[in-house]
């Protein structure tokens, strides 16, 4: 399965989503990899820090570029593509490459608007918006969830709660609890399987 994680807005948790999804796939018994096509190389730096501290991740993280994405065949069972913000060429190529695209957004109106805008760039490619940093009893989180459910863009049933373990995970081994990313991975599998069955 090929999963792209993207949003034209930066700072919405794309890299964390990519890394946690790869770990969820690994724990589900899949050979997993993250392809880091973001020039900032945050996913690659994360993996490097884990190696330096002798706590390597259970999946590979590989630098990628646009030319490589267009010709490469994934070796792993699940490949998660971590993309940069504000690069229309990569955004379009990632939508075409992926079996499904995850568009993370935090619980603010500006993030949500950009997530919906990003979804529209897919021209009907399989994709959904993922609400992250969700707090059940917080008005802003609830309003954002309702905004998503009432928009034309599809959103995932799974929401990712606000957790310190997720926010502070950069450069660390994956925590015991994946904060619903394991549930998201199962939801993605179901969606992709249903798409393949209908083809």
UniProtKB/TrEMBL annotation:
InterPro entries: CobQ/CobB/MinD/ParA_Nub-bd_dom, DNA_Partitioning_ATPase, P-loop_NTPase. CDD domains: ParAB_family. Residues 3-170 form the CobQ/CobB/MinD/ParA nucleotide binding domain. PANTHER family: COBQ_COBB_MIND_PARA NUCLEOTIDE BINDING DOMAIN-CONTAINING PROTEIN, P-LOOP CONTAINING NUCLEOSIDE TRIPHOSPHATE HYDROLASE. This is AAA family ATPase.
């Amino acid at each position: 399965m090929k999963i792209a994680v993207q949003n034209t807005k930066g700072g919405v948790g794309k890299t964390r989503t990519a890394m946690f999804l790869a770990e969820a796939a690994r724990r589900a018994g899949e050979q997993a990899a993250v392809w880091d096509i973001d020039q900032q190389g945050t996913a690659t730096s994360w993996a490097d820090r884990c190696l330096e501290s002798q706590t390597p991740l259970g999946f590979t993280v590989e630098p990628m570029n646009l030319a490589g994405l267009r010709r490469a065949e994934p070796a792993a069972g699940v490949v998660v593509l971590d993309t940069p913000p504000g690069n229309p060429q990569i955004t379009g190529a990632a939508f075409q490459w992926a079996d499904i695209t995850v568009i993370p957004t935090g619980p603010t109106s500006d993030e949500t608007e950009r997530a919906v805008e990003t979804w529209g760039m897919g021209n009907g490619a399989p994709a959904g918006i993922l609400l992250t940093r969700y707090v059940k009893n917080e008005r802003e989180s609830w309003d954002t969830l309702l905004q998503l459910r009432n928009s034309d863009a599809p959103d995932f049933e799974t929401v990712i709660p606000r957790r310190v373990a997720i926010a502070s995970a950069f450069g660390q081994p994956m925590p015991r609890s994946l904060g619903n990313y394991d549930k998201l991975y199962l939801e993605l599998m179901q969606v992709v399987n249903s798409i393949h069955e209908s083809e």
